[in-house]
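Service request form, structural biology core

Requester: graduate student, group of Dr. S.
Request type: structure prediction, single chain
Budget code: on file
Notes: please return the result as structure tokens.

Sequence provided:
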Amino acid sequence: MTIEALTIGRVGVDLYPEQSGVPLAGVSTFAKSLGGTATNVAVAAARLGRRTAVLTKVGPDGFGDYVRQALDGFGVSPSYVGTSPELQTPVVFCELNPPADPPLLFYRSPIAPDLTLTDDDVPWDVVESVPLLWVTGTGVSAEPARATQRKILEARGRREHTVLDLDYRPMFWPSVEEARAEIGAMLDHVTVAVGNRTEVEVAVGTADPDTAADRMLDRGLRLAVIKKGAEGVLVATPDGRWTVPPQRVEVVCGLGAGDGFGGALIHGLLAGWDPVRIAEYANAAGALVASRLACADAMPTAEEIEELL
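Core staff response, request fulfilled:
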């Protein structure tokens, strides 16, 4: 399979409570789902008909086997999923309390396999030639993945489309200052960046969407996408900027909405759509995921997105 999009970064197994609105101590049963930002984004794009793969690593355990099997089942190539022999596949517990912004409990110690990516794990020919490359802020939160992702971006040479998912998780960083330095540095090597207000503040030092967009475009980006929650989505290019209104849905679980948005963003970029069309489509995809339980399993089809629009 010749892939259209390669995502790089986090993978894990998500365990979702089957009882909503109670703390973890009160949960009786959990449902297992494929998880991790880069992985979910690849699944979301595949659900929309794109040929995708994820570059990541798991442990030599049953959950690692599950990751590969689940990717294959979703139509995502597991060809670039490596194994860290001494580590375990990460597990993440979600507490649906509150459902809109559920707390997460990450089991990624002493380090997650996906943060042990080295030069030897990278399909360099794919990195240089794939139509769309997707990197993440979490991917530079620790070595050796930090140095590896830097080399990947250098090899890519800011080819269109090179996308940075700002993906800031404070528990993965020793300080905001270090996160700003490492995530911000990647802006000089990508053509598109996407994130929410918190994430753009970490990357460029301001949570104001318009100012943040200005700062990203000044770094040479061709498209900045800033998610403003209930205020919609700002999309900015060197030629103009627009705000797309939010989609109103009843939130079941807020997790994975950004990943559904990302998969739709990939689809729109590869299709050559204009920025407003991309934002409307991605916003609808994210809203649909928020109205469902789980992440990868909740990614919508093109028909479902068009129906909501």
